[in-house]
Amino acid sequence: MRIQRYVVNKKFRITSTLQGNGVLWKPSDTALLSNYTIFKIAREAGLPPGVVNFVPADGPVFGDAVTSSPHLGGINFTGSVATFNRLWTQVGQNINRYRSYPRLIGECGGKNYHFVHPSADVTTVIMGTIRSAFEFCGQKCSACSRMYVPQSLWPKIKAGLLAERSKLKIGDPTEFDTFTSAVIDDKAFQRISSYIEHARNSKNLSVIGGGKYDDSKGYFIQPTIVESTDPEDRIMVEEIFGPVLSVYPYREQDLDSTLRLVGESTPYALTGAVFATDQRFLQHALEELKQTAGNFYINDKSTGSVVGQQPFGGGRMSGTNDKAGGPHYVLRWTSPQAIKETFVPLTEWKYPYMSD
Length: 356
Ligand SMILES: NC(=O)c1ccc[n+]([C@@H]2O[C@H](COP(=O)([O-])OP(=O)(O)OC[C@H]3O[C@@H](n4cnc5c(N)ncnc54)[C@H](O)[C@@H]3O)[C@@H](O)[C@H]2O)c1
Ligand SMILES: N[C@@H](CCC=O)C(=O)O
Prior knowledge:
Layout: E1 4-6, E2 12-20, H1 32-44, H2 59-67, E3 74-78, H3 81-93, E4 103-107, E5 112-116, H4 122-134, E6 144-150, H5 154-165, H6 186-201, E7 205-209, E8 213-214, E9 220-221, E10 224-228, E11 244-250, H7 255-264, E12 268-269, E13 271-275, H8 279-288, E14 295-298, E15 315-316, E16 334-342
Parallel strand pairs: 3-4, 5-6, 5-13, 6-11, 10-11, 13-14
Antiparallel strand pairs: 1-2, 2-16, 7-10, 8-9, 12-15
Helix pairs in contact: 4-5
Nicotinamide-adenine-dinucleotide (NAD) binds at residues 27-30, 59-60, 62-63, 78-80, 83, 86-87, 107-110, 141, 239, 241, 270, 319.
Keywords: NAD, Oxidoreductase
InterPro entries: Ald_DH/histidinol_DH, Ald_DH_C, Ald_DH_CS_CYS, Ald_DH_N, Aldehyde_DH_dom, Proline_metab_enzyme
Protein name: L-glutamate gamma-semialdehyde dehydrogenase
């Protein structure tokens, strides 16, 4: 596919082309729909049959097969850090086998935050947090999982979160008034419920809302709110990928050090939100939290980016921040070629400055 052509002067024509870069793939249970969409769009865009393929397979079997193929052109992965690290390591180990250097894109996990300033609008904070933390049972890479609230606002925000939480209908997702449903599988159920048990057994943590779980019919876990006196407890630091929100009420005099903790306490940088009406604080937070979120929200929940409007992705251990849904993404999967064609015959090897 040739997409650009420049004639620089009468002597040269420089042409740039972009062409496909070999095997691309995007495995993810959580992204099956987008796999199908990519497949459909590719066909509609004119790619011949066989260029984009849907290949259902066991994850590690597929990963081992493609990373050991000399024809691997790139990996476009959505999933956990552990799996992406395994794939990247395998690519490194096989580097001498490949016909070209594979492009690697990772869209990985997050420990997404809501940071509340004393000037914040309390209702916005409560409603945005309920949606972000508990929609899709918290199984969204961008879901809010940790929250920092000034102690002065905590009683109001806590009461509001608990009241709204108790109104959420958990059940059959085909019913329109259902807000959230079961988690995806037994593995997720075990992982998420282990964090709830950790909260019950830790002196720094209190389960203040929800906390029950039941796998007798489907893997159901109540939307759960945990209050923490330790901002570095593992429940405030590790990705849970489930409906568990941990809140650290901070002292107002510790505002700046708490803001720094947002970036320092986790290795992730996917999404984050600040809630404030104080414009000077918002400017300060934007600067201070620059490296903590690929998608940063102001007075809005940390989820809900729309393809084509808000390119999505994060840095640090959240991925390679190539921004799916944005204009640069497709270029990562092309291979530009620069071509020079000379129209003037060459008559000697000496350059003009070398003449006697
Ligand atoms: N950043 C994003 O855009 C984004 C979006 C959705 C989910 N996520 C992240 O995905 C994770 C949850 O998804 P998950 O539990 O399915 O993750 P996962 O890493 O366990 O699995 C992701 C996909 O990779 C496959 N897989 C597993 N091992 C593999 C291997 N060795 N080689 C090749 N493929 C392999 C799985 O079958 C699955 O399809 C969370 O960390 C979440 O934050 C990120
Ligand atoms: N577009 C999603 C993120 C994509 C991953 O699941 C969001 O709602 O923020």
